[in-house]
Amino acid sequence: KIACPWPLPQAELIDFARGLDLVIVVEEKRSLIEVQVREELYGTANQPVVVGKKDEAGKWLFPVKGALDANDIAIAIGERLLRYHRNDDLAGRLARLKDAQAVLAITSDVGSRTPGFCSGCPHNSSTVVPDGMRAYAGIGCHFMAQWMDRSTEGYTQMGGEGANWIGEAPFSTRGHVFQNLGDGTYNHSGSLALRWAAHTKTNVTYKILFNDAVAMTGGQPHEGGLTVDQIARQVAAEGATAIRLVTDEPEKYPAGVRWPAGLSIHHRDALDEVQRELAEVGGVSVLIYDQTCASEKRRRRKRGAFPDPDKRVIINDLVCEGCGDCSVKSNCVAVQPLETEFGRKRKIDQSNCNKDFSCVKGFCPSFVTVHGAKPKTMGAIALPVAGRSESGEARTGVGGVQDMPEPAVPAIDKTFNVLVTGIGGTGVITVGQIMGMAAHLEGKGLGLIDMAGLAQKGGAVTSHLRLANRQEDITSIRVTAGMADLVLGCDLVVTGSKKVLGAMKAGRTAAVVNTAEVMPGDFARNADYSLPAERLKRAITTAVGGRSEQGAGLSLVDATEAALALLGNAIGANMFMLGYAWQTGRVPLARASLRRAIELNGEAVKMNLDAFEWGRRAAAEPDQIRAIVATSKASADSTELSETLDEVIARRIAFLGDYQDADYAKRYRDQVERVRAAEAKAVPGSTALTDAVARALFKLMAYKDEYEVARLYTNGHFAKQIASTFEGENLRFEFHLAPPLLARIDRHTGEPKKMSFGPWMLKAFGVLAKLKGLRGTAFDVFGYTHERRLERQLVADYVRLLDEILPALAPGNHATAIGLATLPGKIRGFGHVKARHLEAVRKEEAALLARFRSPDPTLAQAAE
Description:
The longest helix has 23 residues, at 786-808. This protein has a six-stranded parallel beta sheet, with helices on both faces. A six-stranded mixed beta sheet has the order 15-16-14-17-18-19, with helices on both faces. Helix content is 41%, strand content 13%. It contains 31 helices and 22 strands. It is of the alpha/beta class.
């Protein structure tokens, strides 16, 4: 055993190697021990062969990149042992290991979960740079801006931020860059690089991102109690030519703060303007962006140590166009997709929302701030608490049903291997810790390791947990290929990753997987991003050998939906999963031990105990729990999807009748029936074109002008949505709109700025909705705007397109016709957002029309 890896004592090493033919060095990452062994033994008598990072032939054996896999190590050692001693048992074990690794080698990732900024993270706003400008990354959470569309590239070691630009600047045609620098790194050593940049008179703007904590490593306070005004005075003393402070709360600084001369304070909405100003300043300028870490806000709010705004944001899904501008503006993972009858819309994940409110900047009238609101919970239903009360009386569960029978706890044969997978920051690691503590309470052996990295930022996290009756039975901790007895899949995407799928084995592995589709940060930058949910389910099902409610095999459950309905918080989903797995007889620990471990953990004890017991109930009485969850969901018709083409058409005819009148709805119906007849004649048995036209023509005809937005707020849908989402008395609504005649124009972007309107706007909506009869008439004051004229023109253009398509429709151009018919679905948003999408659609339409008018004869023949 090497206690000190460098320097290795020469005499002891030579004594160790005496008489050896081969020395195998296994070490993580770069070679430190191996190079010393090879150097010290070189030229000694009977010099042994030394392998490590590379084998005897110079090929990679234990790579520098990534983590070493125990199976790979075992195979490398086993193969070399067999050269010296033939043993059938060893050869058999080696063959099984190779088979497992072969399965892993051909397994591929079905999906991935890239780490990103947390909901409400200040870096969602602070790392944006003006168009055409560039930023360097650094060490800290803001490093992740590199894999976002933020013109941020290049990084250096901690404390070296800006040093690379000092060397590059004299040879670059670019005269200026921004350098992101976290407050923790600034306090640690980054101030030295800033000092050097000032000394060399380099043109750079340091963006010091002050989030009030060392956020990337757990939210520790700054050493020395660093404050914003201290940083400002320090950088001024170092020679900063200009200093600007940008914050989400400009009014929060008390009177008497000692700011350096020339510093000015701005709201974060002025970030773009401030950055443009500083880019023109020579030398080192400094922008301090002050906004508390969103995760720290959540933690402090739980302890009552940080203000908690008494308001929530909701999106009226009928008004929403699904354009994604809210995600672009906020980059927030709490903005999630909502699949509705009228296409993909947006919703706010209230459990994940950290109340940053930057999403309301999205250019869309669907956002409403609700003051005095709290997420609705199922408080009226008795929780299924097991056991007996303090008085000794038997407790009952849901609906008065007596406590469920306990399942048989599986036996542990040497080791019982568990993988807990999920999304970082949602309590995944806590599940492994709870199981580990329960094993400790029972006197069992335990090995636990968490594979996290940047996982706490919404990335993939996997906990490896090995349980044994004796501690000495555990020889390694990580669960390797084909060795998992239980996979507790708290996230569908992570569970479908290569490493996790490779650890499963049909007939051995039991998997309980949460089917909730939680979008990663990619969704904020791609409005059409979708998880390959069905492919993930198929891959997991194949890996475990099929579906099964008990024993080995797969159980699928939407734990997130259940936790929201039953507990009012999605964070309870993971403990719900543990309860479900335990009740199906897949966890080799006693219920009492698990409950006691939850109590000892000390965090949200009641909710976690309730979540565990609800999970048990869901496994034992799935129909009853499904019914309870169903009653808690919003009763909005928009989220109920049509099952047939006739239903699709009928619902849209009814909608258009309410939108305008019966004649308007008849125009729609006649066009759709015309398409249906033409398609039946040209391509018998197909209704794909009719379905596409039914959806696209409706979207164009039901354009959301002022009358329609008003109607969709006052027709009862919004009231139902509020009632099913929030609870609270005297709710007050704040609407975020950009009225054409009132909204101011941003002088840098040229885009209208949104304004806030109070509860009185509901009454104004009521009046405006009744005026829908003016739509399209000479008295329609809104109808004269460019956007309204364009929307009416789009309907006429689409009908003319159908006039061209239908007479020429044939099997060979049917697919192209469908592509043309679906294009209006991509014209999403309001104002300039809609105009941008329309421009892209027109280019695509021109290409498809050219193909339709001059089809490829080979493809046409194949279609026929």
